[in-house]
């Protein structure tokens, strides 16, 4: 029986990535970053799409080369269809369609958020790999999304809670910008918070119904505190940077974990995972370990390489869809918005 080999392509935002997975095992995962956006304090969509056009061919070529796979050996091509920046998505979608047609192999469309969740099923061929069992809860946190996902199976996921305004990662980045930290701000806040007092300052925690999130109030209270304290002392931010970062980070994590804890209790689920770019945050990872000890959770935290946007998560999702003959027609177009079901 021949192997199932999937080429995954990810281009939803500012990273161009390609990955090859064979029978569920990752053979390569190549990512080209776009450093140009740091000088603008955020991703510029037009610049991102242009960079994808330059990067996609060499990135795919490198992924195939590292995997030791020829194009004619591919079983299918999986690509990110959305959500994301339309200009960026169009580059990956168009390339995937063209390559699939030229090779006369199936095309598999992948929901970017579903792929973040299924990153927990990427195999690197190691003997001690652990995967969550269905059903499980996944806290999906990134610059664009903050959601609690009830994962019933590979292809049956329901968003039971989500932000009604800013995402957690977005709140980190915007607050970091106010403090004069580089973009993306989340990693810098994480680094500075390690030497700070998490109880030094108090920020607003919203009271949102159900399992939903809100970070706009936190962001506003953060801005007001800096404004008022800076009036008293122009050097306030510089002199208290570590404590500010630690207090902000602790507040965001507390908001995230409170709703996740409520959902796990209400649904009586002990298998709990985290995914998305913010899952690289060291304090959030520690909060998961703390909850595992206190509430008898079995927690699943992805390797750092699979927290940010990457094509391995697209390829593994495409692999599961391929096994069910869930293919994509050439007429399907990218989408930018999030839905409550994947």
What fold name stands as the CATH topology of the largest domain?
A: Nucleotidyltransferase, domain 5
Question: Which series of helices and strands comes N to C?
Answer: EEEHEHEHEEEHHHHHEHEH
Rg, Cα atoms, Å = 20 Å
**CATH architecture descriptor of the largest domain:** 2-Layer Sandwich
Per DSSP E runs of 2 or more residues, the count of β-strands stands at 10
> So how many helices?
10
Mean pLDDT metric: 93
Folded structure, characterized:
This protein has ten helices and ten strands. The chain has helices spanning 45-67, 86-103, 112-118, 168-178, 185-193, 216-232, 236-239, 241-267, 282-295, 311-323; strands at 5-10, 16-22, 25-32, 76-82, 107-111, 136-141, 146-153, 156-162, 271-275, 298-300. The radius of gyration is 20 Å and the shape is globular. The model has no long low-confidence stretch (mean pLDDT 93).
């Amino acid at each position: 029986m021949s192997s199932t080999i999937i080429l995954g392509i990810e281009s939803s935002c500012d990273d161009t990535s390609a990955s090859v997975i064979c029978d569920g095992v990752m053979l390569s995962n190549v990512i080209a970053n776009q450093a140009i956006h740091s000088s603008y304090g955020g991703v510029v969509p037009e610049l991102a799409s242009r960079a994808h056009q330059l990067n996609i061919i060499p990135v795919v070529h490198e992924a195939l080369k590292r995997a030791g796979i020829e194009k004619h050996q591919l079983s299918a091509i999986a690509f990110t269809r959305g959500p994301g920046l339309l200009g960026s998505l169009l580059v990956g979608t168009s390339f995937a369609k063209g390559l699939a047609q030229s090779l006369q192999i199936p095309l598999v469309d992948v929901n970017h958020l579903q792929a973040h969740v299924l990153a927990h099923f990427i195999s690197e061929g190691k003997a001690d790999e652990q995967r969550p069992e269905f059903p499980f809860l996944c806290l999906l946190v990134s610059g664009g999304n903050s959601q609690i996902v009830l994962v019933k199976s590979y292809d049956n996921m329901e968003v039971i809670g989500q932000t009604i305004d800013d995402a957690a990662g977005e709140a980190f980045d915007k607050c970091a910008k106010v403090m004069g930290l580089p973009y993306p701000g989340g990693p810098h806040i994480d680094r500075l918070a390690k030497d700070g007092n998490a109880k030094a300052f108090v920020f607003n925690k919203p009271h949102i119904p159900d399992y939903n999130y809100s970070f706009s109030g936190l962001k506003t209270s953060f801005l007001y505190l800096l404004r008022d304290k800076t009036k008293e002392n122009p050097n306030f931010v510089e002199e208290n940077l570590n404590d500010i970062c630690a207090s902000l980070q602790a507040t965001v994590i507390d908001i995230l974990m409170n709703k996740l804890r409520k959902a796990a209790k209400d649904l009586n689920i002990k298998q709990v995972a985290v995914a998305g770019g913010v899952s690289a945050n060291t304090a959030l990872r520690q909060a998961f370990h703390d909850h595992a000890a206190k509430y008898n959770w079995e927690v699943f935290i992805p390797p750092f390489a699979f927290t940010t946007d990457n094509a391995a998560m697209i390829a593994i999702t495409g692999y599961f869809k391929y096994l069910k003959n869930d293919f994509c027609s050439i007429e399907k177009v990218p989408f930018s918005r999030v839905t409550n079901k994947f």
